[in-house]
Predict the 3D structure of the following.
Amino acid sequence: MTRRFSQDSSNYSPSQSGPGAHPYADDISTTYDRLMEVLNEESSLRSKLDGLFERQSQQAQEALEMAKRHCRAVEEAQEAMVKNIKQTKKAIENARHSSITEIHIN
């Protein structure tokens, strides 16, 4: 049996028959149609999965940016605390020094 395929294979159907059509033409046609459905579904599922991956990546990127902002805020708060501790310690030392000086002067 000889089949001629057009340049555009999307126009081809395995059930096309000519002289001496194969006895399995219906099975071939059914299987071919099912395969095309599966391939189309696969394409649709791949597109959906790509979209989900993109959203997941965006969400992870947003979470990373939020974590970076939080880290900067924590570091700034810690720096402020350390600065306050140093200033308080210096003020206490100055107060002690002033008290000692006053005692020696009197």
